[in-house]
Design brief:
With 197 residues, the chain is mainly beta. Helix content is 4%, strand content 35%. The protein is built from 1 helix and 14 strands; from the N terminus they run E-E-E-E-E-E-E-E-E-E-E-E-E-H-E. Strands 1, 2, 3, 4, 5, 6, 7, 8, 9, 10, 11, 12, 13 and 14 form a 14-stranded antiparallel β-sheet that branches. Strand 1 and strand 2 form a beta hairpin. The model has no long low-confidence stretch (mean pLDDT 82).
Amino acid sequence: MILSAIPTLKPAEATPAQTQIPKERTGRLKVVADNPSYNGYVSCTLASNGAGQFNAQQNQAMQIKYTPGPGPFRINLLNCATGYKWLGASLLDKTSKLGPGGTAYAYLTAMNDSNYGSIACPANWGGPVRAIMWSIGPDDTISATWDVGGTTYDIGTVAAHTSTRATMFLATDYTAFANAYGSSSYTKARLVFEPIN
């Protein structure tokens, strides 16, 4: 009796894992201050000088959109009253040192080009402007970095002007900034992404 050979089953080929495409997230630009009485939102209306300002009304908050991933990246503005497209910063004080002990700071602002060009703030502020500088952590805290000659500085700490609530600065060292420009006029804060359901 002749036994037929048992066919060998070919192992199934592994299917390549599908690439996970990060889903865009939409939310509001929230301000969380060390002094809770100054908590609020970045306003969708810029100050007259083009700087970001903050208020307590959620319905006037700047709405933003971004794609999760490693930073730095751009943050898209969805409802900026003047039509600017990207969240940006303008480094006003370019002579002071960045980093620990430094008093250099930037205005939070808005712009139309990714890293240069058309911006809401006046050109006479003098410093460079950037938009590709943001990161958003697992707790939705928004951080920012500024690269100078290959050295990267954290510039994501917010110094919010408490008397007018009209201006927000980004500083590398809040204590040095406050000591130089008046600690009673500012409160330390951070920017936070607040999801819109």
